[in-house]
Amino acid sequence: MKVFVLTGAGISAESGLGTFRDPGGLWRRFDPMRLATPEAFADEPEEVHAFYNLRRQGVREAAPNAAHAALARLEAGLAASGGRLFLCTQNVDDLHERAGSRAVIHMHGELMRARCTACGAGRPWAEDLSVDTACPACGRRGGMRPDVVWFGEVPRHLEAIAAALDESDLFVAIGTSGAVYPAAGFVARAREAGIPTHEINLAPSDTAGLFTEATYGPATQAVPACVD
Ligand code: BJW
Question: Which helix (H) or strand (E) holds 162?
């Protein structure tokens, strides 16, 4: 069996990482257009760096939870029976990997990586960034940015994602509001392909009506209950 799982901020919420659109979420407190766009980085790089340095610290201090661990078990179990888990996350944290998932597609990039806007070189990055940070590859200062996908930028690995969706037997979305495209459109594509669709969330998402099945509850309980 081939299972496509799309995860969002809700799967990491119980690890202490804030979501974006829930009450108290990041985009309820901060304007995403001033922090998560290439224009914001060009205009106010120090403000953008300060925001992501704090987020990076939060990720360093967080630990994977029971939902991340259940997906790692699912990947191993499916592989053992000749199937496959395609794990696509919108999250920029590394909690899936730290829970033991081996193949993770980060469609919105990774916070623990940095990329140089001058030479394009990307590399793992666990420390703070600033406008004074020099690119280890080309030496230019001021161009290092978090290797994440901001609004108006093209998400990563879209061809591989589309191919995996089309050959899956089941689509599952976990802890995502269905507010951000193109990820929010995956469930419609799965429906068109005739694949069963399952939402796991605290509450019905914006695209809840497109799912054929739903489990509502905290991810740390709902995901292990569905997997085991
Ligand atoms: C729990 C829980 C618990 C809580 N247990 N559950 C079509 C229509 C309109 C607009 C557009 C459109 N197509 C494109 C756009 C523009 C834009 C967009 O979608 N805007 C919308 C706001 C309308 N999209 C883009 O710009 C994207 N690029 C693009 O489209 O390029 C063009 C292109 C596409 C394809 C081919 C060619 C060209 C890029 C989007 C980049 C998003 N970036 C961010 C920031 C990343 C860096 C960072 O982290 O700072 O990504 S924004 C933010 O939202 C982040 C997330 O990955 C993303 C999704 O959020 P998510 O994960 O769903 O979190 P929440 O907070 O929204 O929801 C949490 C959920 O968890 C809730 O449902 C809770 O109930 C639940 N939950 N606790 C279970 N314990």
Answer: helix 158-166
